[in-house]
From TrEMBL:
Residues 1-23 form the signal peptide. GO terms for biological process: carbohydrate metabolic process; glycoprotein catabolic process. Residues 29-272 form the Glycosyl hydrolase family 92 N-terminal domain. Its cofactor is Ca(2+). One of its GO terms (molecular function) is carbohydrate binding. GO terms for cellular component: cytosol. It comes from the Bacteria. This is Glycoside hydrolase family 92 protein.
Length: 791
């Protein structure tokens, strides 16, 4: 691969020449600024590589933290001052902020509404550049240009100073950043004139809740291109001049310089979650001789390679921007936590060593938000073209199972940080097995999957599913209205039931199905029969009169005072209107229980109504804006619903509504990106757009014994996909346009397709999938034989 740097362009132009025709860089279609109103901590980290540990980004409000532990924090397009450039950005993990300044010494970042109260600086977005692998901004208060880039485990800074006798770099490590909550311990020291090292320990809100004996440690070892004229320290207690180390809360250093006009100072910061020694080793392995410009070129070449695994063509530039920005967030959302030598962070600040993961690519240990909803977007994208990351996800969870005895839905340095409490890890592992991703101990994996569904004895709170005993005993989770608030503990769940009883029943039914299919594949007949029976538990909470899922008490009666649009009561982050369609493991059964006409009429009317509010929470800027709506694309429980028409004999409505969601819910603006400030959980909504725009989806999340692919409405005239098995799939959509959203006919490798689905193993052989599109539905195509709902 030959890389050509084209100087003077607004974005790095990478031209690839390897015996093929030159291809224009796809990086120009990635706009990291999309959706940066009310965005989450990981979301705006342009100076990173895919799945990197080093995720560098400007922070407008990072030190504010958030009381509940998950709210939008970090960078907000509505705020116009920067308080620093932070290295660690993961779910519940954040820390190590640097900031270049001039003038009077300040060691606190200051307040958003009073920029001059600290070292933060105003900036103008016209002087900001954000690209995959690179960030640049002019800090107006100081006349300093800051640039950032990264390798997997090393962050790079380049600061261009004005002439100043009071130039400095603030290394602020002892204050909370993002979701990581208060710092419990910290240390930073100059090793010599040009090297710095240190660590930060934090106790995030979700660690405190779900894994109280845990902790999150971050380590760094840095190299500075120019020795400072002098060094000072600070802590929460104040400033200590001429000290080259600091310890405890509020710890930091300030490096003093005298700079000439346009003088550059560069820093390379090796990162680790295990030790300073490993941070130093990561720096040496990845960046010992690397310059800033070389690191930037390499980072952007990596993004070019990974994004180009799915190459889309078409005349609509906005759709390409949505597509590649969504893919960017999908590849950015989770980050490696293991070092170059295979060390990884274990529970309570311990250090482990990864074991060999079996055939296939070497697995990394990764930090991850919950996989809640990820089977309808992220795992499907991984399985299509990025199987190494699906394998790393499974191996990470199995390592935690070895170490702690249970899967952890969300993980921060091996600590349980679930967030939703239901734990779909077993389903995701079963899906990996069914698509042939098996670079792990399969018997151990099944043992863990089975335990996740059926075992409740001595279950760790942070591993989720604390009402498994009730689910297996009653065949559903009994509703406990009194658990809304129980002795100060909100939304309590235990062996007798839960406040979120209905969503739990539906979710456990789905994950039991996934485990059942894995059991069947491995010849575990008794397990298969037990799990399959549990997978039909949704039938027990479907009210036969209203045809809605309704909370049910332990005595078998439905709860009174039921309101279908009421969120939270019985349903986590949603309501009955949304969750009634949560039977992805058996759509045919749900359709039969409702009646096909009623099912189709209700579902179509839901989308007709929700179209008026952009398929989410309208223009309200809030993650939960749509929880009381009739449909809410801005959160996980609804993400499969638009694909259910394929099962009910009206595939043209799946084509219509998935296309309209892509057009209306997704935007290309800082405020209208993923809805309006809705919940882009570490790449999930971006992944959904990517696979839906290709016209490929599986409601069951690849949990069938022989997984299928449903066909929708491909947006692009041509998509060339490098499959994970190294074969190539070309998808052509003839005549596709904003109005031509309906499939008239389709064929695979010259053979006509009569169905709106096919088996995934057929698709993964590669070749050419051709759709002919039109402006009116062809109601004869794909409507006769629905996708299988075999139990």
């Amino acid at each position: 691969m030959k890389l050509i740097f084209k100087a003077g362009a607004g974005a790095l132009a990478l031209l690839l020449a390897a015996g093929e025709a030159s291809a224009q860089s796809v990086l120009k279609y990635v706009n990291p600024n999309i959706g940066t109103a009310h965005s989450r901590w990981f979301f705006y980290t342009p100076a990173a590589v895919p799945y990197g540990m080093a995720k560098l980004a400007p922070s407008t409000n990072g030190h504010y933290g958030n009381p509940s532990g998950w709210e939008a924090v970090g960078y907000d397009t509505r705020q116009n001052s920067i308080e620093g450039f932070v290295h660690f950005h993961e779910w519940q993990v954040g820390g190590v902020s640097f900031m270049p300044t001039t003038g009077e010494l300040r060691v606190q970042p200051g307040d958003l509404d009073k920029p001059n109260s600290g070292y933060r600086s105003k900036f103008d977005r016209k002087n900001q550049v954000a690209e995959p692998g690179y960030y640049k901004v002019l800090l107006d208060d100081y006349g300093i240009t800051a640039e950032l880039t990264a390798t997997k485990r090393v962050g790079f800074h380049r600061y261009t100073f004005p002439k100043s006798d009071q130039a400095r770099i603030i290394l602020d490590i002892g204050n909370k950043q993002g979701e990581s909550s208060d710092v419990t311990d910290a240390n930073i020291r100059m090793v010599d004139a040009t090297h710095v090292e240190g660590f930060v320990s934090t106790y995030p809100k979700y660690v405190k809740t779900y894994d109280p004996s845990g902790k999150v440690n971050m380590y760094f070892y840095g190299e500075i291109s120019k020795a400072p004229a002098s060094v000072g320290a600070f802590t929460a207690a104040g400033i200590q001049e001429k000290q080259n180390s600091a310890t405890g809360k509020g710890a930091g250093l300030f490096l003093n310089y005298q700079t000439t006009a346009q003088e550059k100072v560069e820093l390379k910061i090796g990162l680790s979650y295990t030790s300073i020694a490993n941070a130093k080793a990561n720096l040496a392995a990845e960046a010992k001789t690397l310059t800033f410009d070389q690191a930037r070129t390499a980072a952007q070449a990596t993004w070019q390679r990974e994004l180009s695994k799915i190459a889309v063509e078409g005349s609509n530039e906005q759709d390409k921007t949505k597509f590649y920005t969504g893919l960017f967030h999908a590849l950015l959302g989770r980050g490696i936590a293991s070092d170059v030598n295979g060390a990884y962070p274990k529970h309570g600040g311990q250090v482990g060593q990864l074991v060999a993961s079996g055939p296939g690519p070497k697995a990394e240990f990764i930090n991850t938000d919950a996989i809640w909803g990820g089977y309808w977007n992220l795992t499907q994208l991984w399985a299509l073209s990025y199987p190494e990351w699906y394998g790393s996800y499974v191996n990470t969870e199995l390592q935690v199972y070895r170490d702690k005895g249970w899967f952890g839905d969300g993980l921060a340095n091996s600590e349980y940080v679930s967030g939703v409490g239901t734990n779909f890890v077993g389903l995701a592992v079963a899906g990996a097995y069914q698509v042939g991703i098996r670079n792990y101990d399969v018997n151990l994996a099944y043992q863990a999957v089975k335990a996740n569904e059926l075992n409740y004895r001595n279950r760790a709170f942070g591993s989720g599913k604390m009402d498994v005993k009730a689910f297996t005993q009653y065949g559903y989770v009994p509703f406990r209205d009194d658990y809304k608030e129980y002795k100060g503990e909100w939304y309590k769940t235990d062996s007798t039931g839960a406040y979120f009883s209905n969503s739990h029943t539906l979710e456990y039914s789905y994950s039991a199905f996934a485990a059942a299919q894995m059991a069947k594949a491995l010849g575990k007949k008794a397990d298969y029969e037990q799990l399959l029976k549990l997978s039909n538990s949704w039938q027990k909470i479907l009210n036969p009169q209203s045809k809605l899922m309704q909370p049910k008490l332990a005595d078998g009666t439905f709860a009174s005072n039921f309101k279908p649009f009421e969120p939270w009561r019985g349903f986590q982050e949603g309501n009955s209107m949304q969750y009634t369609f949560y039977v992805p493991q058996n759509p045919a059964g749900l359709i039969a229980a409702m009646g096909r006409d009623k099912f189709n009429n209700r579902l179509d009317s839901i989308f007709t109504a929700s179209a008026k509010t952009g398929f989410g929470g309208g223009k309200e800027i809030d993650a939960f804006a749509g929880v009381n709506a009739i449909y809410n694309h801005g959160n996980q429980p609804c993400l499969h619903i638009s694909w259910l028409f394929n099962f009910s004999g009206q595939p043209w409505l799946t084509q219509k509504w998935t296309r309209q969601i892509c057009d209306e819910f997704y935007g290309t603006e800082p405020i209208h990106g993923y809805g309006y400030g809705q919940d882009e959980d570490q790449g999930q909504l971006g992944s959904w757009y990517v696979i839906t725009a290709l016209g490929l989806f599986d409601v069951k999340g690849f949990t069938d014994a022989r997984p299928i692919i449903e066909l929708g409405s491909p947006i692009f005239s041509k998509s060339t996909i490098q499959l994970g098995n190294q074969k190539k799939l070309v998808i052509e959509a003839k005549n596709t346009s904003k109005t031509n959203m309906y499939v008239q006919s389709a064929e695979l490798n010259g053979k006509p397709l009569a169905n709106c689905w096919l088996y995934r193993d057929e698709l993964m052989k590669g070749g050419k999938l051709v759709f002919t599109m039109g402006a009116q539905p062809n109601k004869a195509w794909g409507s006769k034989t629905p996708p299988p709902s075999a139990q």
